[in-house]
UniProtKB/TrEMBL annotation:
<keyword id="KW-0997">Cell inner membrane</keyword>
<dbReference type="Pfam" id="PF01618">
    <property type="entry name" value="MotA_ExbB"/>
</dbReference>
<keyword id="KW-0653">Protein transport</keyword>
<feature type="domain" description="MotA/TolQ/ExbB proton channel">
    <location>
        <begin position="107"/>
        <end position="213"/>
    </location>
</feature>
<comment type="subunit">
    <text>The accessory proteins ExbB and ExbD seem to form a complex with TonB.</text>
</comment>
<keyword id="KW-1003">Cell membrane</keyword>
<protein>
    <recommendedName>
        <fullName>Biopolymer transport protein ExbB</fullName>
    </recommendedName>
</protein>
<comment type="function">
    <text>Involved in the TonB-dependent energy-dependent transport of various receptor-bound substrates. Protects ExbD from proteolytic degradation and functionally stabilizes TonB.</text>
</comment>
<keyword id="KW-1133">Transmembrane helix</keyword>
<feature type="transmembrane region" description="Helical">
    <location>
        <begin position="181"/>
        <end position="202"/>
    </location>
</feature>
<keyword id="KW-0812">Transmembrane</keyword>
<keyword id="KW-0813">Transport</keyword>
<dbReference type="InterPro" id="IPR050790">
    <property type="entry name" value="ExbB/TolQ_transport"/>
</dbReference>
<feature type="transmembrane region" description="Helical">
    <location>
        <begin position="24"/>
        <end position="44"/>
    </location>
</feature>
<keyword id="KW-0472">Membrane</keyword>
<feature type="transmembrane region" description="Helical">
    <location>
        <begin position="136"/>
        <end position="161"/>
    </location>
</feature>
<dbReference type="InterPro" id="IPR002898">
    <property type="entry name" value="MotA_ExbB_proton_chnl"/>
</dbReference>
């Protein structure tokens, strides 16, 4: 293998590049590391939420609310347990079961509206947390190719300056520097593609979890207002459970 080819590539681009080329390479490296950290972090979150969602049916087959909460799993990062607690506390508060007897402004609200508002707030908070970091993935996916393209344009510009200064034009003098400059475009795509795929996969995963959370909140609302969960099959059956 010829020496000039063996020494070409990333190492040669780094050693022969100026501060702009090295800065572009470092920015792409930072983008790539950030992308993979977010993908792994959010994938673990989605996996945990799917496991927590499997506790929903156990929740409705519990004898009382305290046992039902235990079946939803640990409280940390658990949107289903957070919604259940938020709904229960809202029901206690609006019916003055929490020990607060003095009149408050929300006393004029309907019990159903107050509980729905509280559950909606809990679901919205969980939605915001689930979508955290996805905007960074979207930004990396849309900007990394342009960052790489900028590095390529900068490299070609300096390669052409070098060829012009030497006063000789041959295929080896043109192909080598321009080929190395194109590495930056390849790096930009190498950063952007995982970001795009990770973003789409996480959006799909979050959508499935949030669908289950919204359905659970709907059932919770029915239970906290009427004292029974309305059957999802629409056959008129209700599942009774003691309130905690």
């Amino acid at each position: 293998m010829p020496t000039d080819i063996a020494t070409s590539g990333l190492a040669h681009v780094w050693t022969q590049g100026d501060w702009v080329t090295r800065s572009v390479a470092l920015v792409l490296l930072a983008m790539s590391l950030t992308t993979w950290i977010i993908i792994l972090w959010k994938a673990l979150d989605v996996r945990a939420h799917r496991a927590q969602a499997r506790g929903i049916e156990g929740f409705w087959h519990s004898s009382d609310f305290t046992e039902a909460l235990d079946k939803l799993g640990p409280a940390e990062g658990n949107p289903f347990r957070a919604a259940a607690i938020e709904g229960r506390e809202a029901a206690r508060h609006i019916t003055h079961q929490d020990g607060v007897s003095r009149p408050q402004l929300h006393d004029s609200l309907d019990v159903s509206d107050w509980i729905e508002r509280s559950l909606r707030k809990s679901v919205d908070d969980s939605t915001v947390r689930a979508q955290g970091g996805l905007s960074v993935l979207a930004s990396v996916a849309s900007t990394a190719p342009f960052v790489g393209l900028f590095g390529t344009v900068w490299g070609i510009y300096h390669a052409l300056l070098g060829i012009g200064a030497s006063g000789q034009v041959s295929i080896d003098q043109v192909a080598g520097p321009i080929g190395e400059a194109l590495i930056m475009t390849a790096l930009g795509l190498l950063v952007a593609i995982p970001a795009v795929l990770g973003y789409n996969a996480l959006v799909r995963g979050n959508k499935a979890v949030l669908h289950q959370l919204n359905r659970f909140a709907h059932d919770l609302h029915a239970y906290l207002v009427t004292g029974a969960r309305v059957s999802a099959g629409g056959d008129g059956k209700v599942l009774h459970m003691k309130r905690g």
